[in-house]
Amino acid sequence: MHRLLVLYPKPADPDHFRDYYVNNHLPLVKNWPGLLAWRYTFDVASTNGDSPYFAVFEADFPTATAMAEAQASEHGQRLTADVPNYATGGVVVIHYPVQNSTA
Predict the structure, then answer these.
(1) How far from chain centre, in Å, is Cα 54?
(2) pTM of the model
(3) Which residue intervals define the domain EthD in the entry (predicted)?
(4) What are the backbone angles phi and psi of residue 26, rounded to the nearest 5°?
């Protein structure tokens, strides 16, 4: 599995971010091709001091290739183009293969 992680620093207007994200952006995410699962939160805490992030989004894809194809798709481009409508604090996007282990 391959994960896309989006970290959102604090926006200029947190209420607008929350409202737009939930009511406009996340409905677009639901139809992203190749998406296995996704999750998000606004409750980002730090173990030491204030968190540098306001929100976090995770998306799981079967492979890095599937993720790249999803991002390059028309739908993926629409998602990317929508980000400036709410993320006035910027955005950090990283991705990585997920390593599984059992305890």
Answers:
(1) 12
(2) 0.91
(3) 11-88
(4) -60, -35
